[in-house]
Amino acid sequence: MIWLTWRQFRGSAVLTAALVAVCATVLAMTGPGLADRYARGVAACVADGTCDRFFDRFFDEYQLLFVLVGFVLLALPAFIGLFWGAPLITRELEAGTHLLVWNQGVSRVRWLAVKLGLIGLIAVAMACVAGLVVTWWSRPLDGSAVPELAQMTPVVFGARGVVPMGYAAFAFVLGVTVGMLVRRTLPAMALTLVVFVAVQVAMPTLVRPHFMAPVSATHELGRVNVGGLHVQQGGGEVRVAIQPAVPGEAGAWVLSTELVDGSGKAVAGDGQDAPVAVSGTSGPCSPQGAGAGLDACWAEINALGYRQRALYHPIDRFWPFQWIETGLYAGLTLGLTWLSFWLIRRRLS
Amino acid sequence: MTPVLQARQLGRRYGRRWALRDCTLEIPKGHVTGLVGPNGAGKTTLLKLASGQLAPSEGELRVLGERPGTVLPKVGFVAQDTPVYAGLSVGDHLTLGARLNPTWDARLAADRIAELGLDPRQKARRLSGGERAQLALTLGLAKRPELLILDEPVASLDPLARREFLQGLMEATAADEFGVVLSSHLIADLERVCDFVIVLVDSRVLVAGEVDVLLGSHHRLTGPRRDPDRLPSGQYVVSARHTDRQSTYVIRTDEPILDPAWVVTPLTLEDLVLAYMERRPAAGRRAGLEVLR
Question: For an interface test with A, which of B20, B49, B53 has the most A Cβ atoms less than 10 Å from its Cβ?
Answer without folding.
Answer: B53
